[in-house]
Amino acid sequence: MASAQLPNQASLDADLAPEALTLADRVFSEIQNAIVKGEIKPGSKMSEAELASRYGVSRGPLREALRRLEGRKLLTRIPHVGVRVISLSFAELIHIYQVREAMEGMAARLAAENMSPEEVQGLKALLAEHEKQAEFQEGRAYFQEEGDFDFHYRIVQGSRNEVLSQMLCGELYHRVRLYRYQFSVTEGRPQKAFGEHHRIIEAIEAGDGEMAEILMRRHISSARKNIEAHFRERISHAPDAAAHEAGETRGKGRGNRPANHQE
Prior knowledge:
- The protein is mainly α.
- The protein is 69% helix and 3% strand.
- It has helices spanning 2-12, 18-36, 48-55, 59-71, 90-114, 117-131, 134-137, 151-158, 162-168, 171-184, 189-205, 209-237, 239-249, and strands at 75-78, 82-85.
- Strands 1-2 form a two-stranded antiparallel ribbon.
- The longest helix has 29 residues, at 209-237.
- It starts with a helix and ends in a 14-residue tail after the last helix.
């Protein structure tokens, strides 16, 4: 019975060959970065034919990449519609930043207590690499790759708190990345955020957990206020759409409008 199933199983696992996995990894990374940078907008429908042509891959590796993006909650499958990029409402995004402010503040405090001198030096080296980005030097944006290349991710890992890591480095982490970069595309914001990162590192290096928490909370609060400023600007340009989302913030609805659909 088992032997009779082997040919079919081998056919089903064809995409798992090393070459296919390499292609799936590449297209997964490229599509994810395109989503994070706003090149593929929130709410956009994902066409397999268009994506296969754009990224030069067959449907097998592409579908594997899309499944992984669904697993990260960056894509959502809607019956009779297809796969789309997730789209958070203004209210949902603000709620996420309120949670981040409290939890990442705690992570920074714990990191000041638990990070080794070598890890702190690693944080400094990471910021030195970020500073070399052309778009950062031109004041256009501040992009961070995921995982260990991300300042916030490293702080959470440095907290040595598994619960915080699970909560901040899982689904929430990838949803935050979707909007964090796009809202950094504000005049003066990249340099301001970069300076805030440096001051947080100084507090962690000094072992001052209280100051590290205060600075991290201020940092994320500043990012939240930047999002709110974008929203206020939308009010002046599209009052009807903005009023709709304002109603959501008062609990009158939870629509699926992109938080930065004008970007």
